[in-house]
Design brief:
This protein is an alpha/beta fold. The chain has seven helices and six strands; from the N terminus they run ααβααβββαβαβα. It has helices at 2-9, 12-22, 51-60, 62-69, 115-131, 151-157, 176-200; strands at residues 38-39, 73-84, 87-97, 102-112, 141-148, 164-170.
Length: 201
């Protein structure tokens, strides 16, 4: 009963429906494991937090973060160091997805998605593919978690073709009316994508 009450308080149904609307990809496709938005209200972040605070809070609440990501994720490393042309680069979080058999790179961004974030993630994925990918694994994929997505930029850049997903994260649940609006919008977007795919076949 306590768990049911907690799920109701966190608006579990609306959260599930918003996430499910995004999962219109075929089973086994990389985009089928990511959702948008991610609800990170359990982190307890205050206004004025930075990326380091977000990352630290995720690591403290790693079990809850993995549950929010979805089934099949296993934590690999924090601040994965990559040396490229003698320069150090650090990937925020590295996971492995068991069902997809591939590494999952996660970058955390405080503000709105920018086109430069795609280039950064592409570099990280190429490095992981060359130096970290094990025999029998598929090519690594990436998730850029932003405080706000830029839907038109994401669409124009065709990030999913490069194995990259951009999703928003929310550090507190919005009011019910906002959740319902998001649900309607996500369902409309999913229907539109499915219709475009159907017309292209």
């Amino acid at each position: 009963m306590r768990e049911l009450r907690r799920q109701i308080e966190r608006k579990a149904y609306e959260r599930h429906e918003i996430a499910s609307a995004e999962l219109s990809a075929p089973e086994g496709a990389p985009e089928a494991v990511f959702k948008d938005p991610y609800f990170l209200d359990f982190l307890g972040l205050r206004d004025g937090h930075d990326e380091a605070d977000l990352e630290a809070a995720i690591l403290i609440q790693l079990k809850a973060f993995i549950l929010e990501l979805g089934q099949g994720f296993a934590f690999v490393e924090r601040k994965k160091r990559m040396v490229i042309d003698g320069e150090d680069f650090y990937l925020d979080l590295l996971f492995f997805h068991r069902r997809l058999r591939r590494l999952v790179a996660i970058e955390l961004k405080l503000g709105r998605f920018k086109a430069a974030h795609k280039g950064q993630m592409e570099l990280y994925l190429k490095w992981l593919d060359r130096y970290e990918r094990q025999p029998g694994e598929e090519a690594p994929i990436g998730l850029i978690l932003c405080a706000e997505s830029s839907h038109e930029q994401v669409e124009l850049l065709q990030v999913q073709k490069d194995g990259i997903t951009v999703a928003e994260y929310w550090t507190e649940l919005p009011p019910k009316a906002e959740l319902e609006r998001q649900l309607r919008s996500a369902l409309a977007d999913a229907r539109e994508r499915l219709e475009r795919r159907r017309l292209m076949q």
